[in-house]
Specification:
The protein has one helix at 150-153, and strands at 22-24, 28-32, 42-50, 56-62, 79-82, 90-91, 101-102, 108-111, 117-118, 129-132, 139-144, 155-160, 168-175, 179-184, 187-188, 193-198, 204-213, 222-228, 234-241, 259-266, 272-280, 283-284, 288-292, 303-304, 310-316, 322-327, 331-336, 348-349, 367-370, 375-386, 392-403. By secondary structure, the protein is an all-beta fold. It has a single domain (14-403), classed as Neuraminidase (6 Propeller).
Length: 404
């Protein structure tokens, strides 16, 4: 197993060589694309969805990575299920809505991303400004959240009430007088992506992106945290991690689009640890760490601790080991055996890196699923898996990892 170290911040001085037991299994094929499938967004972005009957589903994108594709039905199978803890997989489309956060009241709740609205069909307030997109997406236009129509300022969710048989779509009320939402390319998407967890007092905490704030120059993306005390019926702003680039670690920091794709975990001492991505048209930037000791109300100054990384995923195993997965280039696993993310192993690389193009070998997006106290599954994409026909195929893969 080849390892590379990307540690660049002062935190690197605290990273000691750790020699724990780490056993990474062989990759198991979930799904393989036709060899001619090269479009960005297709057969990418896998995510685990534990099902209520004990099986595990993996779902992935089969559409372009664009707002125009949000909410579209899959034209080819993109949901696969395993009944043997990830050893074998088969297509099974009948898993929609089965995976969701179990609430203290017995309901299950999940955030959904609806089809974008056509701006031409909307009655919108006066925008507060606009800014060019980071990926040559065209002009992004921003509006004050409280001034938007109800369906545009809500949190779109699907709920399975305790004892009910049918999922019901609903709109959670989002209370944040300073937040902005946006339109682009004639579309108004409803994007509220991130981790949602149950806190020790039974309330819900969601750490989401993109978080746009009125008054910030050039409209950088931030990570916003919202708390719900009524099982997701309404959400109040709890805290924010504003984009503060570390220019010593990232010379392009001031030019980037901000923090995106925050992952957060509740640690054993009940503090919160968040890892954030920074990236845009300038290329993949460093990942940052931030901590909260008051359930997400205030956060420490973000600290850059890697050179690259997209969609960080965090998982605290019951044996106390903290797992971090990320990608670009390839796919990496890191472990913190202090359980706090203060010291990390060097990355274990799961996908061969064959090009200076950071996106050539994998989308870099991963998903983690705990199997027991000391083992988990990781799902990821590999763009160059050799097929039975002798050609390279995009593929979704899963590996079992034991650590302790």
């Amino acid at each position: 197993m080849r390892r590379r170290s990307f540690l660049v911040s002062p935190l690197a001085a605290a990273v000691a060589a750790q020699k724990p037991h780490v056993l990474i299994g062989e990759p198991r094929l979930v799904a393989e694309a036709p060899a001619e499938e090269k479009r960005w967004g297709h057969f990418q972005f896998p995510s685990f969805h534990p099902l209520r009957d004990g099986r595990i589903a993996v779902r992935f994108s089969v559409h372009d990575d664009a707002a125009e594709a949000y909410g579209l039905p899959a034209a080819v199978p993109n949901s696969y299920v395993s009944a043997d803890q990830g050893r074998t997989w088969r297509a099974d489309a009948d898993t929609r809505g089965d995976a969701a956060l179990l609430l203290p009241n017995g309901d299950r709740l999940q955030v959904i991303t609806p089809r974008p609205f056509q701006v031409a069909d909307l009655s919108l307030p006066r925008p507060v400004g606009s800014h060019p997109g980071s990926y040559n997406d065209g002009l992004t236009t921003f509006y004050r959240l409280p001034e938007l129509p109800e369906k545009l300022r809500a949190v779109w969710c699907s709920r399975l009430a305790k004892g009910a048989a049918e999922w019901v779509e609903e709109y959670g009320r989002l209370n944040d007088p300073q937040a902005l939402r946006y339109s682009l390319r004639g579309l108004f998407p409803i994007v509220w992506w991130g981790d949602m967890r149950v806190l020790r007092d039974g309330s819900l905490l969601a750490g989401i992106y993109p978080g746009y704030l009125e008054g910030q120059k050039n409209f950088p993306s931030n990570a916003f945290f919202y708390r719900s005390t009524d099982s997701g019926g309404s959400w109040d702003v709890r805290g924010r991690i504003l984009y503060e680039p570390d220019l010593q670690a990232d010379s392009h920091g001031a030019e980037r689009g901000g923090f995106t794709e925050p992952a957060y975990e509740i640690l054993r001492d009940t503090s919160l640890l968040t890892v954030l991505r920074t990236t845009d048209g300038l290329g993949v930037g460093p990942m940052y760490l931030s901590r909260s000791r008051d359930d997400g109300k205030t956060w420490s100054r973000p600290l850059a601790f890697t050179r690259t990384g997209v969609l960080p995923r965090l998982l605290l195993l019951r044996n106390g080991v903290l797992v971090l997965s990320s990608g670009r280039p390839g796919v990496d696993l890191r472990f913190s055996f202090d359980g706090r993310g203060e010291r990390w192993t060097e990355p274990y690389t799961l996908v061969p890196v064959t090009s200076a193009n950071l996106s050539a070998d994998s989308c870099g997006y991963t998903s983690l699923h705990a199997l027991n106290a000391h083992s988990f599954l990781i799902a990821y994409s590999w763009f160059k898996r050799p097929g039975a026909d002798g050609r390279e195929h995009k593929a979704i893969l899963v590996r079992r990892v034991e650590v302790g």
